[in-house]
Amino acid sequence: MSNRSVSYREPPLLLANDGKARFTRIDGGPVFRGAYLGRGMATGDIDNDGAVDAAFVSLNEAPVLLRNEAAAGRRWVGVKLKGATSNRDGIGARMRMTVGVRTLTRWVTGGGSFLASNDRRVVFGLGGEGTPAALEIRWPSGRVQRVEGLVPGRYHEVAEPGE
């Protein structure tokens, strides 16, 4: 059943984080100028380039894929967790990566948007810094693991140590 009279269409919102707890609306192109009856969004790196992409669906319309065309030469490290004592996807794990003088924190989440599932891999953008010094993982089991030697520009699978 289709009801085209629904009047709460809205344009998608694309925000850029300035790194200082402020966000600015940016123009992401023609898709962001239309109005949609948005119903769900999923994020993930569909082409394994370290730039997280997104897809959203709207009521009675075709899905929209938003490819993140990040600048060439940017540096990143991707991590996929494999739980042993904790759940197999590491949902609930906190990861902290030291990059130069900065510490980046990421959480592995299991939720997201309505009727959607996101890529469980986590991406750390390195900016102009070199190789990350270390990654600390606090698993849902409470175990803390330190990983060193992660090579930028690729995904790394990290397994939770057994008992």
Quick description:
The protein is an all-beta fold. The chain has no helices and 12 strands.
Topology:
Blueprint: E1 15-17, E2 23-25, E3 38-44, E4 53-58, E5 64-66, E6 75-82, E7 94-99, E8 102-107, E9 122-127, E10 134-138, E11 144-147, E12 155-159
Parallel strand pairs: 6-12
Antiparallel strand pairs: 1-2, 3-4, 4-5, 6-9, 7-8, 7-10, 10-11
Task: Tell me what you see in this structure.
- The chain is built from no helices and 12 strands.
- The protein has a 4-stranded antiparallel sheet, with no helix packed on it. It has a 3-stranded antiparallel sheet with strand order 3-4-5, with no helix packed on it.
- The N and C termini lie far apart (54 Å).
- The chain is mostly beta strands and 163 residues long.
- The chain is globular, with a radius of gyration of 18 Å.
- It folds into 2 domains: 15-66, no CATH class; 75-159, Sandwich (Immunoglobulin-like), CATH 2.60.40.
Features:
Immunoglobulin-like; 2 domains; three-stranded antiparallel sheet; 0% helix
End-to-end gap: 54 Å
Task: Assign the CATH class of the largest domain.
Answer: Mainly Beta
Count of DSSP strands: 12
Instruction: Estimate what percentage of residues fall within beta strands.
Output: 35-45%
Helical proportion, percent range: under 10%
Task: Describe the sheet with the most strands.
Answer: 4 strands, antiparallel
Question: How many domains?
Answer: 2
Q: What class do helices, strands and sheet pairing give? A: mainly beta
**Uncertain regions spanning at least 5 consecutive residues:** none
Q: Briefly note the CATH topology name of the largest domain.
A: Immunoglobulin-like
Number of helices: 0
